[in-house]
Amino acid sequence: MTLLHDLKAGARSLWRSPGVTAAALLSLALGVGVSSAVFSVVQAQLLTPLPFPQQDELVYANEITAPDGALNAVSGPDLADFRARARSFQQLGGFRATAFTLTGLGEAERIDAGALDAQAFAALRIAPAQGRGFDQADDAAGAPQVVLISERLARRKLAADGAVLGRTLTLDRQPFTIVGVMPGSFRFPLDGPRAELWVQPRYAPFGDKLDLRALFFFQLVGRLAPGASLAQARSELQAIVASLAAAHPDSHANRSALVVPLREQLVGHERSALLLLLSAVGLLLLIACANVGNLLLARAISRRQELAVRAALGATRGQLLGQLLVESALLGLAGGALGVAACAASIDALSLLLPPEVPRFLPIAVDAGVLAFALGASLLCTLLFGSAPALLLAGAQGHEALRASHAGSARGLKLRSLLVVAEVALALALLVSATLLARSLRSAQSVDPGFSPDGLLAVNLTLPESRYPEAAQPRFAEELLARAAAIPGVTGASLASPLPIGGRAIGLTVTPRDRPEPQPPQSSFYALGPRCLGLLGIRLDRGRDFAAEDRSQGPQVVIVNHVLAQRLWPGEDPVGKRIGLGPGDTAQREVVGLAGDARQALDAPSGPVIYAPYAQVSWPFTTLVLQSALPPAALGQALRRTVATLDADLPVENPRPLDELLSGTVARRRFSALVLLLFAAVALQLAVVGIHGTLSYAVAERTRELGIRLALGAERSQVLALVLRQGLTLAAAGVAIGLVLSLAFSRALSGMLYQVSPTDPLTYAAVSALLLLVSGLATLLPAWRATRVDPAVSLRAE
Length: 798
Prior knowledge:
Helix content: 40-55%
Structural class: alpha+beta
Low-confidence stretches: 203-210, 396-408
Strand content: 15-25%
Mean pLDDT: 78
Shape: elongated
Largest sheet: 6 strands, mixed, barrel
């Protein structure tokens, strides 16, 4: 009954103070809502276990280039050597992301897929919902082509036809037999698009173009053997790679092995950004706590006479303390509910900001974990800082309480001032960090990428090798270019495979033919159509561009960029030099041009790049580059009609603007900067509310003093300066402490900054000045009210 009575009394008390209650609820809703939304992202990436049994045994393996540790890939023969010689793994399998064109079930559609062999599938230990998984017989050369499909694909394409096992899917014009249906929770690879079907990776689209030992396209997933350690597995693979480097120096020079926990590989490069956001969550909650504490303290002090009378009438210390804590708990629950509502309203927008390639092990949603976080955060805010006024005002008894009321007021004002200083300090730390990230993002977006994406659109196409063998691909591309250029509104057309902007690159070692090269550099390789360099706006500094005469039967030619030219022929003219592409390439390819350095990503410098004519080194995956003023949707419709005249079963995606692709290369930076800026804006608002509320209360408490000052001849400007000085003193103290916090916090950002120092003095000075200015503005209204005090009225009231 006592608890029920306290709940009813607490609800009535909060209702009688609508202003303070609304302000506290708003503070909680902002702090808890924004924090819960970001927590949902962190939970989906960092706190959720991998969706595989015994995840601690799962490892990711790959080959890296020493000494920079650049991630490469593993060739099929290398994987066979790893399996034959390593003893630290129960299973070790290869996988990669891929895609197929699905035909025969309505309109042709491009389906994201995963290619993984039987050992990779066995390492994951996920049983199909129907049928069987891959086994060793499926990996054998000449074995029937089989496929596993997702429950979603089965429902979407095959549900109307009953049983799916044993049915045939036509993928890239090849028949695949369905042997299993994977449960809806299964996802692999975990990063990138969500795969809807899985095949063995032996069905590679370019396996016959180069020496298989030098064709690196596998990533590896394995499960450690019982008793084997991660260090042991790493040591074994490093020893094997070292022996491969000695046996195959042309393709394996400077290679080593990487073996890390699978989860580490998936989220390791995201951990610093997510931990930064989680730290920002903590700071924002502390600011919200301080603000709620300030409001509750003001409310409690305004009730000091009431509490003193209750104590004089016999209320015990425990009863007073319990009543105040119940009121705080009610406030926390209501604020938490509003915060959850704010989180649910903003979580979709936050999901859209999150880069699509970031792995998500759970959907980003308001689930039990987020609800628990929101409830805990809101109760912590109110109970932690709600106990301060309770302890401050519930300690005296009887007539002592009546005498202590004014002393409690003074102590309360000091405590409120300390809370304001803390709010300003924490807000400054968030503002500095957010500004550094925003400036870093701006620096990345303002660099010269080395090309001009304006007005250009890209369309990805993949030609099934069963219909378009290597010799047929250039002929199809030539006809496609001619018809695409004739589309009304198209002013330029070419193709690239792959697109050298914001996409993937093919890594090949480059060997000069004029001298031995013990450590041939690995270069990003792109096949381009005629006039593609000019269409993309990539500068050609020497030599010539590719022309229609550069065909497969003619002289083999390439264009190199400055980085590669300087690496192979420092101080020399590269035009006229001859090179080979990888150890399996016997051609004498002549360098006919020197191109400017173009960035594949805005925040990454250009590395060695080599271009070849598409007619001489074609790939089945290609990107059509179009210059057009047409909207992407209209251009996509026209292009589908055009492609259908050549191949009705070739799906065409909507064109994407190249500037959008380029902007996507800094999506991670943009996400971190925007979220932290949101936090900083909320923190600044809470700090302003805290300063304004504290000074308004101080002016109300000092009405008699200010009236006496004015009665004794003080100018109103002096009273204005007195209150302004009080507010700016609190703000300045908070700024001073916040600068120290900012230095510690921003140093953790150093790995995420681009061309901006974590101790950039301009940022610190500008943010400090902004916070002082905003604090001064928050002080103006209470200061102006102080000058409006009527000495006669205030003295009579006292």
